[in-house]
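Task: fold both queries, return tokens.
Query 1:
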Amino acid sequence: MENKYENDLLNYASKLDALVEGYGKITEYATAIVENQDEAATIRLLQKISIVVDSGKYPMEVKQISNVLKDSLIKYYGYMRVLDICNQNQADDETRTLPELLAELNELIGLNSVKAKVNNLIAFQKVQKLRKNQGLTTANNTLHLAFTGKPGTGKTTVARIVGRVYKQIGLLTKGHFIEVSRTDLIAGYQGQTALKVRKVIEKAKGGVLFIDEAYSITENDHSDSYGRECLTELTKALEDYRDDLVVIVAGYTEPMNKFFESNPGLKSRFNTFIEFDDYTSDELEEILTMMCKNNDYILSEEARSRIKQALNNHVAAKDDHFANGRLVRNIYDDIVMNHAKRVVDIDEPNREILSLITDEDFMEY
């Protein structure tokens, strides 16, 4: 959703630039706003809009674009403010106790080695906190984590739980969760990436900053400049805010290994590395069954049998791009849609018909 507001602001700025021959200044102001919420650029953009609207030399079409640009600016800042409020108060709305959060972690399907490591890590950090409160020597470990494995293996879900648990045991002041990718960290021109990273860090302080596909920071043509600038600033923040910030980087295993090799000081900031294995076909079937149950659907035995065979085939033929839980989500979405198309023309369908997924609803792919 944020991209929509950003894109609208940039698109209308570009259009107005062309219509008034602004020589790129209007677009430059909008870019500075999107990348850094630059207050000076905001004032200049509003001044430029006012000049166009009040001037008698521009046709009505140009003035209309100016007003639309102003509206898009207001909507962008409104969205960003709402996002800030939600992030700041996310942890305050968390009412679950530590035992309830640990139960949520341990009830996740599969991920046995992950759950064991996270439980051990939580126990260790909890005791370190208790020792610190009693004036005892504590380990000088950071809270930052690295999650490796294919997509759809539960990395984001576990990261959210870790943040809430750390809040409950007093390691984080807020426990909120902010997820970012390369586009949220890398600016469009030299020298501005550090400012962008600092702004993200500022929002994440007190909680968890989750960087998905973190290796993408150094995987493009600008890796020698923009990517290095980002990693330098990020590495500094990992140390500066280690007492009230958890940074979790995640991605495919091999690219993540190269990512850590790209900056000598980066790997030393991470004490815990957790590998997320692929789900088995039985675990994938269990996830699908749970999704159906949570949404009041029931799989017929025939449908279950066909889906189980398809999952076995997918697992047997999997490659580096195997989608794990995302595969199950796609299957679920398809069978629910096919069920709806089959049932919609039935006169007064009863509860069983509205709930039952049959083998007709599953189309193998």
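Query 1 returned. Query 2:
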Amino acid sequence: MKIILLFTLFLAIGLCFLILSMHMAGFFDLDAIIKRARCVPPPCHGEEITLDRWIKPPTNVTHNMTDEELFWRASLLPQVDKYPYERVPKVAFMFLTRGPLPLSPLWDSFFRGHQGKYSIYVHALPNYRPDFPSTSAFYGRQIPSQVAEWGKMSMCDAERRLLANALLDMANERFVLLSESCIPLYNFSVIYDYLIHSRHSFVGSFDDPGRDGRGRYNPNMVPQVHITQWRKGAQWFEVDRKLAVFLVQDTKYYPKFKEFCKPACYVDEHYFPTMLNIELPQRIANRSVTWVDWSRGGSHPATFGRDDITAAFLKRTVEAKNCVYNDQSTSICFLFARKFAPSALEPLLQFAPILLGFDHYKSNSQT
């Protein structure tokens, strides 16, 4: 009798649980629960995969990716040249700086009214905390950064980091490297048209037989780089999307330059110019679009302050020169200039209506 009573009790409890489970099923979608348990995103959780998901740029530039992860992600280049959607190409303005951008008010005037045609990325010291107002084009545009030392591979790492972050936005088509001391020499429309319609990227790459050129070459660079292939160029470059991907994904030349190009070999002057001269010389214009003045001598170009900024000086930076654009002669050779001290901001803003207006230049005047 005890065994029968015990069995009856367990049976009753089981029936109670069965009835309770059937009742609770009315409040839950069991199929959905099973689907979520088996599902690997995407497209779980009812998410629909659309083209917008892949082409929409990141909402902000902060992330937790390592450089290795970031470079891998940025190297995923579409293999079809024609985009399957209406795409407005953008210019990525990449600022490599230690900290503050004292000339940002001038740049804000430059960018104003051209949203959707540009992106901004700032690489500063990791502990720098910017205080741009929410109305500034630079607000929230500082990427995860690391220390970059002049003349060392960490400087090229910073440049590649800027390129990789900019590549995450599929709309970015041209990529220009600038410093905190750079200014624009024309209005946005002129510079945008000049870069977007260029068939070449603007990277200087020349053979310098002297001490500061071939004199920095290390024979251990062989077999990747022979002395006859060794090139020098300005750090401040501008490249299109395909070249940006090429620079980010390089593993062939990077180890050699990191090990065998150390001060007094300044890697930021040789790494990209040499690599591009070897692999893709037909894609570069072999000149820079950033003006500097070396006439004062020394290892660094001249710096300009408040007293230097005059109408005559600004005219000199854009006066007619001989250069080639899309295989035609042009008088517009430089789009940016450096180095400008913080004290130059006030007079530059006074000249901004002229500097950023340039009504006598039309957007197609480069040809």
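Both queries returned. Flag for query 2: The first strand starts at residue 90 and ends at 96.
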